[in-house]
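Hi team,

As requested, here is the filled-out complex form for the BV8 run. I kept the field names the same as last time so the parser does not choke. Let me know if anything looks off before we queue the next batch.

— J.
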Amino acid sequence: MERIVILTGAGISRESGLDTFRDEGGIWSQVRLEDVCTPEGFERNPAMVDDFYNHRRLELKNVTPNAAHSALAELEKAYGENRDDAFLLVTQNIDDLHERAGSRNVVHMHGELLRLRCLACGVTPAWEGACTRETPCPECGQKTLRPDVVWFGEMPLHMERIMQAIDACDTFVAIGTSATVYPAAGFAGQAAQHAHTVELNLVPTGNAQLFDEVSYGPATQTVPRFVR
Ligand code: BV8
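And here is what came back:
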């Protein structure tokens, strides 16, 4: 069976009602990345960062997966027990829409919105509600919780596993990502050395010339068509 790696970005969740980052009116036009998506920003004003992620947790409760998420879950079913990442879904997104659509082999390289991390004892509890500076860690009781997401300047997660899967894949598909943020933006170039590459995005990205196959338009149209 052909081995496939799929990389998704904020664009796949756009039609579920979640803002992207860099489109017009996107998240980085509403709040400064430096203030809410860096360790320095958290150091400077943790309450502002708490508010930013509490707002997104609340928003996530009111949205549902769309046809693009469902199409990827369908595609994964064809891989059955899917031994050794023959099908791997790598997402830059911190929402849980892939999982709620039924995807199983999902790697969140930028962490997860519905998880916290305790800076004192290291536990990463699932977290649906609001987290503030007064929220005690469920494990050690200390008030040292932060969002379990990867900020700029922090090491993305599961990189070795992702690199191995890309090196071994026959097909690499990038969906709904502007190819702006590294190291994710470098995956297409790595795959293009040996695999068939596909870009499914609203519009061509800066990586467009790296792709053998492209389809531009809303993900709820391009992804089900690609999967069929
Ligand atoms: C790191 C946190 C090193 C969670 C995010 C070169 C190499 C390595 C690093 C760097 C490098 N150059 C610069 C860096 C540093 C930096 C970086 O890349 N900066 C950029 C801005 C130049 N990278 C990092 O800091 C990374 N860490 O490299 O660590 C290291 C090494 C050793 C030890 C320690 C450290 C960490 C990056 C992770 C940052 N965290 N998020 C959160 O709050 O969400 S990144 C942020 O951008 C988002 O989370 C998202 O994950 C990411 C990418 O955005 P996209 O998903 O692509 O979204 P965007 O809005 O940009 O685009 C949406 C797309 O969808 C568009 O193309 C649009 O056309 C399309 N679209 C819209 N609607 C639809 C659609 N498509 C289809 N259908 C639609 N309806």
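Two things worth flagging: The chain has two domains: 1-18+65-110+155-228, 21-62+112-149. DSSP finds ten helices and eight strands in the chain.

Thanks,
J.
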